[in-house]
Design goal:
7 helices; mainly alpha; 133 residues; 0% strand
Length: 133
């Protein structure tokens, strides 16, 4: 994932391995979350960032930027001129009861100034009872 031999350590974007290897993406997501180098996650490092660790972190950041925050796909997956498949995905419908509750409550928030800044969230019933509400 580092650069070519002529440009070692130079970041070139999300590499093929990162795109194809879901386990590596999961590992790098954890490393990103906890701010640790991948070598330390694997048990081989001493906590210092190697050139390879930095290249993987940069490639993972590039990968994350390439993924749509709404649908979770990458533009390259759709681009037929780049080997993508316009029909690689089909839609599915999923109902989340928590999101349904939030939407129903959101309907009760007034329009205009009285509703500015109002956000609806969820807390477990037991937590709410503990706080006397």
């Amino acid at each position: 994932m580092a650069g070519t031999a002529a440009h070692p350590g130079q970041h070139r974007g999300a590499g093929k391995r990162l795109i194809a290897d879901a386990q590596l993406r999961d590992e790098l997501e954890l490393c990103d979350r906890y701010g640790i180098p991948h070598s330390q996650y694997l048990g081989a490092g001493d906590g210092r960032w190697t050139d390879t660790d930095r290249a993987k972190a940069l490639a993972y950041a590039a990968y994350r930027r390439s993924v749509c925050g709404s649908c979770g796909t990458r533009a390259a997956e759709w681009d037929e001129s780049a080997g993508g498949d316009r029909f690689a995905y089909v839609t599915t419908t999923v109902r989340c009861v928590g999101c349904e509750l939030i939407s129903r409550e959101q309907d009760q928030v007034p329009d205009g100034p009285d509703g500015y800044g109002v956000r609806i969230g969820l807390v477990p019933r037991e937590v709410r009872k503990q706080h006397g509400q």
